[in-house]
Structures are given as C-alpha cells and as structure tokens.
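Write out the 3D structure for:
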Amino acid sequence: MSSRFTHAIVCRVPDSINKAIGVENPIDLAKCRRQHEAYVQALRDAGLDVIELPADEQQPDCTFVEDTAVVCNGIALLCRPQPPSRRQEVKYMKSILQKELNLPVMEISDESATLEGGDVLFTGREFFVGLSERSSRSGAVALANAFPEFPCSPVKVDGALHLKSLLTMAGPDVICVAKDKHAQEVLKRIESCASFTYKTVTVDDICAANCVYANGTLLHRAASELPESAKVITSKLGHLKLRGLEFSELQKADGSLTCCSILVSQPKHLRSLS
C-alpha cells in the first residue's frame, strides 16, 4: 500500500451531531465522544501525528472529514460532496491542508461533478472510485486527472452510501469485504477492471468491512459489537497489530472508521515547514 503515513486529520464530535444527514436514531453524545476519542488515540498509537480540528456546530457532519479531500503522493484533491450543506467543510479543510501540512491543493473545476472521499479506494497501486448517490462519473474523471500516475477505475455502487461502506483495504494488497450481495457484486466489478491482483478477507457484517490500515496497524470494529467478523479478522489478519474499536454511535449517522480521518504521507521536504 502507501508509504508510511505521517499524519491524520480528524475533527471532534459536535453537539449538533444528531442533526447530521444520515441520523435516524438518536446518538448518545457522551458515548459517541468516548468512542471517537478511542479512535483518535488508536491513530496516535499507530505512529501518526494527529491534527485534531475543533467541532463546528454549524456543520453537523464535520466529524466525517474523509469526504472533504483525497491525499496521495503529497498532493491533496479537494472533493465536492453531493449535499451542498457540506461544501463549507471543504473550504475549511483546504486551509488546514495548506497551512498545517504545506500540501499543494487541487480543486475540481467541473461544477457539475460530485466526489466524496468515502467513494475513493486507494490500494497503494491504483484507485477505484465508487459511482454512487454521492459521487459521479465526472468526479471520478477529476480524480483520475489529479493523480495520472495511478490507474483509476470507476465502479458502480448499489445498496450502500459509499464504496468504502462495502469494502476497504485491510493491509498491503488485502481487501476486506462484506458477505453482503451488494459488496460481493462490487468486488467482482473491481476484480474485472483491476490492474493488480488482491487477496480478500470476507466478514459477516457489512459494517465490519470498513477498516483503517496504517503503518502495520489495523483499526477494525470490536468483538463486543461484531463478534463473528472480529473473529475472522483476528484469524486472517492476526499478523498485523489489531485494534478493535466500538463505533456504534457514529454508525447511527452512517459513520464508519475510514470516514473519520484523512491519512497523509507528508513528503520529507515539507515536514520541517509544518
């Protein structure tokens, strides 16, 4: 996969989280914050310098930073989230990427395009972009143009909010995917157009397919919440440093592990400037 990550950008949970777009059942705010704090600590324990942004009460979805930008090879592409209400989050993320990490930032010029980071799967070798309700084909084209050094394939997504709601990278050349029929269909589409070959680990629970792999550590859903899937991950990926995390509250807002951080490999020549 990618070279060693140096930083992670996260955002604290706002009091207004229950007004986030995907919320149907009430979120326990105190429990949600405890779970998010454990997640942030796990990122730090994986060797990442965590940039923790303050909660923005005017932006209930602000904790889901993944949808605002894609960072690869020391360059950031600002996304264009489908809900107009989230566009202000992107403007703020632009300032963080430039001022805190000194990264060059690109923007999508096509105003009709939509792209959310939750639909962007980078394997370390190539990109797959989910064509979902949140990301369009023109958004996938914009990403391909931003990172021409990597193959980029659009993949139709059904039955889920984002591509990474169904599968994610769980290690070098390893895809963690749910047994869910929609996830399996997407996996077949990926395999049919992939430029490289990947191993797969299949889990029972769709929420368990969303993992964060960074610097030899795999953040995954805890056995206390998803016991059967955690058992599979322990069996198949036990050679990694595993961190089981509870994430039940942010899940109520369609939140997942990957959507709460942007991982960055900051080029060495920029680190002294940060």
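The two ends are 25 Å apart (CA to CA).
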